[in-house]
Structures are given as structure tokens and as C-alpha cells.
Amino acid sequence: MHSDLRAEFIVEELCAATANVFSTMLNLHVRPEAAFIQRSSPEAQDGVEGLVGLAGNYAGIGALLCTAELACFLSSCFLQMPITCVDEMVLDTLGELTNMVIGSFKNTLEKSTGPLSMSIPTVVYGKSITTRAMKHDQWIVVPFWINGQQLIVKACLSAGVEAGLGPCSKHDRQANSDLKV
Amino acid sequence: MPLDILIIDDSTAIRKVLQRVLRQTKIPIAKVLEAANGSEALSVLAQNSVGLILSDLNMPVMDGLQLLAAVKANEAWREVPFFMITTEGSQAKVMEAIRLGATGYVLKPFYAEQLEEKLRAALVA
Question: Which one of A59, A141, B26, B73 has the minimum C-beta count within 10 Å?
């Protein structure tokens, strides 16, 4: 069952979920750039980040990260009204977009992992944001360019305690290593 | 006859989007009421007579399944069509919602046309 959870599979499903949510809810047709694995702590970045936790046989985090400017643009598309500064509604929209993208990703993932539960989204806004997931040593990162700005969609997942497989199987590590920038 | 509709979601943004989508449909709407969780929704229901309920599933305080169970346990509200509109697509959650008496289950993201089609079918029935 768990052998299906390769990095390529995760990238494919993150791309599909993002494209589907953005075209359906924002009328934006987005294309991914080359995906990569981030093993060290990511560089600090200014902007808005939505995070959703996943738990079950696999556990981890899914996240969307973008600049404040792009968060405003996405909110404008979602709400169909002009928005120029980050306010409660922008943070709420980014949380909801994260919920939909990672939720759609989770729904597909469950065919390989078994049932996963999902947390209510958390949104962070500020300068020099760095996200560190305890017990997860690598993020699978898929960048998108939207309206001249970068949107990062990323996930870190590893086999949970319930699965009894330890933090990440050798097979998964090998598969992840094969994913090149 | 125009309906009063209750939307329950912890996201203000999605409540606004749902309001807009509903108003774009041909469903006759009198008033759209909002609540941020199941507990707030029960207070709204106690003070208003609504003809359609659209609820998220994962919410703080009281989630959509708990709300659905409470609505179906109340004689005054049990016949009101109740739709789950959620990202949560796991078979277990869908089955639980149907078992508790949900009229329908709409997965986010959704197109306005898909939502209208499901709602109209239930309202006509």
C-alpha cells in the first residue's frame, strides 16, 4: 500500500489539486515549475503562508506560501472584489485555498495511505517566515508563477507511528532522491 | 416561494463566495443567513425559519456532522434539506453524513452550475 507514495506521485497530485482548485474557484489556469526536494530549513521569506496538518498512517503538513501582493490578488479573484492590502479576509481566503488544495490532495492520497484526518488551516503572515516541521526532514516543493509572483505549494509526509514504518522508508527516500530540480 | 438559506462555514471568505454563487443561481432566495460553526447555526435556526441548510464539515466548536445530527433530532428542522459542502471527501465521512440524513454532499472546489444542479434537484423533490 505505501509503496505508491513516491515523491513523483506527491508532486503529480499537488499539481493536479492546485490546478483544479485555482481553475474552479479563481478562474486562474496555473502551470507548475520544476518541483524539488528541500532537505534543509527553507530560507526565511516575507509573505502569507497557509498550513494544514495531516494525520493517519502518514502524517505531515501541506502548505501554500506566497507574497502579500499575490495573496491579495488571489483573494480578489476568489471574492471577485478589489483587495489591495492584507486583512482578515485575505488571511481567511489563503486558509480556505490551502484547505481546498491540501484537502483535494489528501482525498487522492487516501487511496494509497488509507484514511487521513486533516486539521483546520492555520495562516501566518509576516516577515522572515520559516516553517519547520518537527520529525519531517524534507519538503516536496512545487512552485507556480501567477501574475508575475511565485506561489509555493509544498508538503512533507512520513509514515506515522500507526503504520510502524518509522519516519520514512528506504524506498521513499530513494524515490525522493531521484526527483531532481 | 423565496427561501431563507443558512450557510455555515468557519471561513468568512467561503461564506461570501457561497452567497454570491447562490445569488447567481435561479433559486428564489429571500434571505441568506450565516453562522461560523454548528453551535452558532443552532442559535440562528432557533430564531429563524430556513428552507435550506448548507454546512461545512470541519469546523471548530461544533462540526458539520454534529450539527446535522442535532438538526435531524429536532422535529421542527428535520425536513429542511441539509447539504454538506466540504473539502473532506473520505468515504467514511460521506457515508456518515448520508447515514445521519444529509440531503446531499458537495465537494469543494465546485462550479456554480454543479452546486445549483444539486440544490435544485433536492428542492424540486
Answer: B26
Nearest CA in chain B to A74: B13
The whole model's pTM is what?
A: 0.88
Per-residue pLDDT of B12-51, as tens digits, reads 999 999 999 998 888 899 999 999 999 999 999 999 999 9
CB spacing of A92 vs B13 below 8 angstroms: yes
Q: Which of B31, B50, B40 is nearest to B12 (CA)?
A: B40
Question: Cα-flanking dihedrals φ and ψ of residue A80, to 5°?
Answer: 55, 50
Interface contacts A/B by beta carbons within 8 Å: 57
Q: What is the pLDDT of residues A36-55, one digit of tens each?
A: 998 877 778 889 999 999 99
Nearest to B8 by CA among B34, B32, B31, B46: B34
Give B12's contacts in chain A (Cβ within 8 Å). 88-89, 92
